[in-house]
Design brief:
386 residues, alpha/beta, five-stranded parallel β-sheet, two-stranded parallel ribbon, 19 helices, 8% strand
Length: 386
């Protein structure tokens, strides 16, 4: 049976975890020194390695032959935890088991000593979903934990946890990964499975993942299935459902040139092709951000890693646009993204934003009026209508 890339390439040792060096080092040192705490809190956005590190830590504290805080992966304990035959490591989904009775059952179970391992490890995923009564029941266990029990709480929304729970846990914040870290990981995986790729394609996947390793692997999986021998930039665009970058560039250029009719005509053509308005709005905002980057950063070409023809168009737009106009337009399209989620007329809202952005009297218009005023003054004019 085929296994998805994010499952096949899930790290089995701390050494394999992408980035998160500070967290990995701290956890390895605790295992190596035998100073294992009773409660840990792993927090961060999706796909950054919280559950993965929890599972590796569960193996590491019970491994028969650990190496520098890493599980060996070969002993009967490591293999048993991997295949689920050892019941001393319990993974609980708090999203579907969020009642007080679920936590009471877990609390009662902690009274029993491990059957095969040194520690009984309880991994509670999405812990912020627990009810108030369930949190209170968990609190009692965290206050007076058995010496053989280790709790690892994982959450994407740490602000929903009571302070009484937070104060009893050792907290680790998992950060979003950089585009470079994700790109390097994708290249390593594609090289291993023998799949060819272009640099622009890898960079687009990594950027679209927005800091999540798991999201990047899910996108990569689809691209590998869709593409031919080589994954190209256009393949990734098709998989993501993104708009044709050349058409988006034409739309951005029309907006920044204050050409309302042309901008609306481009929106109409895109809409007739069934383009998702929320995706189109995101593509426009990203393109304007890229124009700002090209206009103000000397290393923009190497940093963005876009196809040459797209970069040249960005450069041309940046030369004819001022930073004030660009920032005004970016603010408008970014502000629209949240409103589109609840709108019943997304196309009308997007078109209104396009018109508003195109009619903005930004930096270019101000400079034009100033030059006209200076020219009139230099010619001795006293009262000139503008």
């Amino acid at each position: 049976m085929y296994r998805a890339l994010y499952r096949k390439w899930r790290p089995q040792r701390f050494e394999d975890v992408v980035a998160q060096r500070g967290i990995v080092t701290a956890l390895r040192n605790q295992v190596a020194s035998g100073r294992v705490g009773h409660a840990y809190l792993f927090t961060g956005v999706r796909g950054t390695g919280k559950t993965t590190c929890a599972k590796i830590f569960a193996k590491a504290v019970n491994c028969l032959h650990p190496h520098n805080g890493d599980p060996c992966g070969e002993c009967e304990i490591c293999r048993g935890i991997d295949n689920g035959s050892i019941l001393d490591v319990v993974e609980m989904d708090a999203a579907s088991n969020n009642g007080v009775d679920d936590i009471r059952d877990l609390r009662d179970e902690t009274a029993y000593t491990p059957s095969a391992c040194h520690y009984k490890v309880y991994i509670i995923d999405e812990v912020h979903m627990l009810s108030t009564a369930a949190f209170n029941a968990l609190l009692k266990t965290l206050e007076e934990p058995p010496s053989h029990a280790v709790f690892i709480l994982a959450t994407t929304d740490v602000h929903k946890l009571p302070q009484t729970i937070l104060s009893r846990c050792m907290r680790f914040d998992f950060k979003l990964l950089s585009v470079k870290d994700i790109s390097d990981n994708l290249k390593r995986i594609f090289d291993d499975i023998g799949k060819k790729y272009s640099e622009e394609a890898i960079n687009l996947i990594a950027t679209s993942a927005e800091g999540s390793v798991r999201d990047s692997l899910s996108i990569a999986d689809m691209c590998a299935s869709y593409a031919g021998d080589t994954i190209t930039y256009d393949d990734v665009l098709e998989v993501l459902g993104a708009s044709d970058p050349h058409i988006v560039l034409d739309l951005v250029h029309a907006v920044l040139s204050h050409e309302v009719a042309r901008a609306l005509s481009i929106v109409d053509n895109l809409s007739n092709f069934g383009k998702n308005i929320a995706v189109l709005n995101k593509d426009v905002a990203t393109t304007i951000r890229n124009v700002i980057y090209v206009k103000n950063c000397k290393n923009a070409e190497s940093a963005l890693k876009l196809p040459k023809d797209i970069y040249e168009k960005l450069s041309a737009i940046s030369e004819s646009s001022g930073n004030v106009d660009l920032l005004n337009a970016l603010d408008l399209f970014n502000g629209l993204s949240g409103e589109l989620r609840y709108s019943t007329q997304p196309r009308i809202m997007f078109e209104a934003t396009v018109v508003r952005a195109a009619l903005e009297n930004g930096e270019a218009e101000i400079e034009k009026r100033l030059k006209k005023l200076e020219s009139a003054v230099s010619q001795g004019a006293v009262n000139t209508a503008f």
